[in-house]
Amino acid sequence: MYKQYIGGKLAEGRGAVVEVYNPATGELVDSFNGADASQAEEALNAAAKAFKANKFRSMTERISWLAALKAKLVENMDKIIELDKLETGKPHGEAVMDFFMMTGTFDYFMEEVRHVSGESIPDQYGTLGGSYNVVERRPVGVVVAHLAWNYPLLMLSCKLPPAVASGCAVVIKPASDTPLATLFIAQLCAEAGMPDGIVNILAGPSSVLGPVLNGSVIPRLITVIGSAETGKQVMRQGSTSVKSYSLELGGNNPCIIMPDAELEEAAWAIVEYKFTNAGQVCANYNRVFVHADVYDKFLALALDVAKKYKLGSVPEADGDVMMGPMITPEARARALAMIDDAKAKGARVLCGGGIPAGRSAGNWLEPTIVADCADDMRLFAEEIFAPIVAVTSFTDLDDTLQRAINTEYGLYSYLYTHDARVIAKCFETFESGVTVVNNGAGGGNVPHIGIKGSGVLCGTSAYGLDSYYDIHVFRIKT
Fold first, then answer.
1. Which part of the chain has CATH 3.40.605.10?
2. Of 107, 119, 137, 156, which is least packed with CB atoms within 10 Å of its CB?
3. Average pLDDT, the chain
């Protein structure tokens, strides 16, 4: 059923068999033949050929291709959501959210590409009208896109629509843990009439496909959603030629809660986000610093919120909030090791902290809150990526800010306060691409951007669309 999509054709993989397991049950969902290295080469060549043939097609045509694909997505919504649930273990509501974030991102890029334009720059040494310097944007060419597993549908829409809308051709590699929904969408690309080679989708082991896709001289842009280590590896492999990179990587995101914060709102926001997708979200709260004056009250409020969470897919009672499993047994084992490390170094586990009773099958972990964390604990030193709220108290803001930025990462920073002086100080000190104050909301039209070890450029918003263009300058003397 699941085929590789290369040059407009669905093809059986020629590589090793890929097995996909349901994280909620541990059962095999399906298996298929993965792509091999030669098929990765074929996909790159197909994309290069398609770009050359289609780079002068109109914007209206490109948008129509995406609109046709989006219509197929909506038509097959139930099937796509079911695959998303099976391969990620998401509760139904979270899979539905993933689907609509995907279609919303299609809508955004189909509209945003209409606003891409150039400009005329006057020569600082020339006379008015004596010459013109015209700047325009042109598609970079072939793009290789590596997707993360935590939101397979959203991840796809962060790469496919901007690549096609801008006039590029793209080779997409979904994560090996969650390739099924993406491969099904490859079938929909064929049905929607996407021009041959404009979109290519390959699934298989990263160890086989990564070196070929990244090491080729064909791609002009490599874009990644994944861990910091993945980003570094991709850049090493891509050093065979000069390429652009758009890397959305991990984070060790700090959160500071001041005495004047709206504590109930902060507790709800932090616990809800930490347990959404079982905490497997790169922008999530990682290190929560709570002022000593409100520390105990915050912990009590956070515990009240945590008690509302149930494991599974369907709420058992009004007010229940559902949480799914972690993605793999290895991911859960890492989370349990982090909890053990914290306990051994003096932290208190206020709730959860283990494998829930009756959930031996699958990769379940209890919703967990750990208090009295310290910088030498793995929960504070590493990205958690699990349903664990890690908290500590503080008294000195300046010292805490230095602790907050003492990390290789720079994705998100969070702050809860109404003091303008504190907001200004934190904003100027935080070393992150995004600073969020009092749970401010964002969306696909807002840059999701990391600095330091958390990324290069971004993959959302108009700023993300810029990555798919080269800047060309046309100079003429009149």
1. 4-249+454-477
2. 119
3. 96
- Judge residue 399's burial from the number of C-beta atoms within 10 Å of its C-beta, 0-12 exposed, 13-18 middle, 19 or more buried: exposed
Per the CB < 8 A criterion, the answer to whether 450 and 410 are in contact is: yes
Residues ≥6 apart with Cβ < 8 Å to 136: 118, 471, 472, 474
Tokens of 144: 């290789």
pLDDT over 70 at 339, yes or no: yes
pLDDT for 318: 66
**φ, ψ at 460 (rounded to 5°):** -125, 165
Nearest to 286 by CA among 367, 370, 390: 390
- Give yes or no for residue 140 having a pLDDT over 90: yes
CB 194 within 8 A of CB 65: yes
- Which helix (H) or strand (E) is 207 found in, with range? helix 206-215
What DSSP assignment string belongs to 435-447? EEETT----TTS-
What distances in angstroms separate CA 468 from CA 109, 138, 167, 450, one per listed residue? 12, 8, 8, 18
Map residue 115 onto helix, strand or coil.
helix
Pairing of strands 348-351, 368-371: antiparallel
Residue whose entry in the numeric block shows the structure tokens 């709730």? 351
List b or e across 129-142, with b for residues whose CB sees 16 or more CB atoms inside 10 angstroms.
eeeeeeeebebbbb
The predicted-structure confidence for 2-57, as pLDDT tens digits, reads as follows 999 999 999 999 999 999 999 999 999 999 999 999 999 999 999 999 999 998 99
* Environment class of 92 (CB within 10 Å of its CB; exposed 0-12, middle 13-18, buried 19+): middle
Q: Tell me the CATH number for domain 4-249+454-477.
A: 3.40.605.10
In the chain, CATH 3.40.309.10 sits at: 254-444
- Residue 316 pLDDT class (50, 70, 90 cuts): low
Alpha carbons 303 and 301: distance in angstroms, whole number:
5
The pTM of this model reads 0.95
* Nearest alpha carbon to residue 253 among 450, 461, 424: 450
Q: How far apart are CA 359 and CA 24, in angstroms?
A: 9
pLDDT in tens, 219-277: 999 999 999 999 999 999 999 999 999 999 999 999 999 999 999 999 999 999 999 99
436 phi and psi angles, rounded to 5 deg: -115, 125
Sign of CA dihedral 186, 191, 194, 197: positive
- CATH architecture for segment(s) 254-444: 3-Layer(aba) Sandwich (3.40)
Query: Would you say 91 and 323 are in contact if contact means Cβ atoms under 8 Å apart?
Result: yes
